[in-house]
Design brief:
Number of helices: 5
Order of helices and strands: HEEEEEHHHHEEEEEEEEEEEEEEEEEEEE
Largest sheet: 6 strands, mixed
Strand order of the largest sheet: 11-10-14-15-17-16
Number of strands: 25
Structural class: alpha+beta
Helix content: 10-25%
């Protein structure tokens, strides 16, 4: 009798597995729509569904891209609203959308079903033997099934599911090289990182040719304004593309306490390609806040590559060009990440889009930025780009005193600045070759 029950359960498990892994078909052929964004950029994809105010487009490869409705041009917003209205009327009442299965076509034989059946047989067979440990076994077998499906060379589909919590102690160890400059703590939900956001490698800012006259000053990323890394990351049904969203605020925090922004600036341009970044991939924002726009791969040498260079704000690690064991990263998915030894993480690449093509984990978005998100605190009005200027040096004169040197029109100029021990009063001294000097004092509110 038990043998018949087991056979029936295996048959049911096989049917469920086939349903989960079934490819919807149609990718790689047929017309794909072109959409115009308010920024002037064009994107391609077929309307798939909506999630709140987000529009989900399906690309020819089958990848799903989420874009806020308000980022489309007025004409395409109306076009989308008409389509949503037509579908709503035709299918009312609207049912909740089904979970998304991310599918990555690969070459080779499909062993998905065989692997699923083996894992189900192990789980169910063990459950029949002893029920007292069924929950623990179920969790282990489920993890084994996910790893089989994700890592197998012949896999044609990957199941989206929770990978499990991250031990805070393991996150804490990745920041060890920069303590006590960086301070850490955690609760049941988030791992918190406190820092002043100042660059750790010098000469920072050197080589920037598209400069908005901002300089690095310490930021109050402390207390309730600290960086927050989720301890329970969850794979998202629809990853958020950095090409169409998250151009405001950071998407990761580096292990030296410096935030990492979208590789594209707030105008949708790659900062790396237009002279905005120094040799370390950083520059300053309007609040004189230093941050990176590409993965800070120079930090990998500090940790011998065994630890990540940053943590994405969806809870997953960001490595440089190599795996933790020193081998070159390969087989990255469309998000520029992959499952490696049972762990999902991102990698940097040396071409566009440079890192994290889309956030693989679930995130909360408000005003086009990941929340919770610390706020930078400027002390002076932001300035405009200085045409023809090239930054040639940034020197730390003492603990609270820096000197930035730049050239424009063949002349050398300086911005000397310092702050008091409270971090509230800042004195800027501007020195130009033609002997023009000016000193301005600012007080941080």
């Amino acid at each position: 009798m038990g043998r018949h029950i087991l056979a029936l359960l295996l048959l049911a498990a096989s049917a469920v597995t086939s349903s989960l892994l079934a490819h919807t078909g149609g990718h790689g052929s047929g017309p794909v729509s072109t959409w115009l964004l308010a920024s002037g950029k064009h994107i391609h994809g077929t309307f798939h569904s909506t999630r709140g105010s987000w529009i989900i487009l399906e690309q020819r490869s089958g990848a799903l891209k989420a874009i806020p409705l308000e980022q489309f041009s007025s004409a395409d917003q109306q076009r989308l609203e008409d389509e949503i209205g037509r579908i709503t009327k035709m299918n009312a009442p609207v049912e909740a959308p089904s979970p998304v299965v991310v599918q990555t076509p690969t070459s080779g034989r499909d062993h998905t079903t065989e692997l699923a059946l083996i894992a189900c047989a192990l789980l169910l067979g063990t459950f029949m033997v002893t029920r007292s440990t069924s929950l623990r076994i179920a969790g282990t077998a489920g993890s084994m099934l996910f790893l089989f499906l994700s890592a197998s060379p012949g896999t044609t589909a990957r199941i989206v599911e929770i990978l499990g919590p991250t031990p805070p102690e393991s996150i804490d160890s990745t920041f060890a090289a920069y303590k006590p400059r960086v301070k850490t703590r955690w609760d049941a939900t988030y791992f918190y990182v406190e820092s002043n956001g100042m660059p750790t490698a010098m000469p920072a800012m050197k080589g920037i040719t598209a400069w908005q006259q901002q300089v690095p000053i310490p930021q109050p990323y402390t207390s309730s304004n600290a960086w927050a890394i989720p301890l329970n990351p969850v794979i998202a049904d629809v990853p958020v593309s950095l090409d169409t969203a998250l151009h405001t605020g950071a998407v990761a925090i580096a292990i030296n306490g410096v935030p990492v922004f979208n590789p594209e600036n707030n105008r949708g341009e790659f900062s790396q390609d237009i002279g905005e970044l120094d040799a370390f991939g950083g520059h300053c924002g309007r609040a004189d806040d230093y941050h990176y726009h590409i993965a800070p791969v120079h930090l990998a040498s500090k940790s011998s590559g065994k630890t990540p260079v940053a943590w994405a704000l969806d809870g997953y690690k960001l490595y440089g060009y190599e795996e933790p064991d020193g081998t070159p990263a390969s087989n990255l998915d469309q998000h520029l990440g992959h499952l490696w030894n049972g762990e999902y993480h991102y990698h940097a690449i040396n071409k566009k889009p440079y890192m994290i093509a889309s956030m693989r984990g679930k995130i909360t978005i408000q005003n086009d930025q990941i929340m919770p998100q610390p706020r930078a605190s400027g002390v002076r009005p932001f300035l405009q780009a200085l045409r023809g200027a090239t930054i040639t040096d940034l020197r730390q004169c003492d603990t609270n005193h820096y000197a930035l040197r730049y050239e424009v029109g063949g002349k050398t100029n300086f911005v000397n600045y310092r702050w008091d021990s409270t971090g509230k009063q800042f004195i800027f001294n501007f020195v130009k070759t033609d002997s023009v000097r000016s000193t301005v004092t600012y007080t941080r509110k």
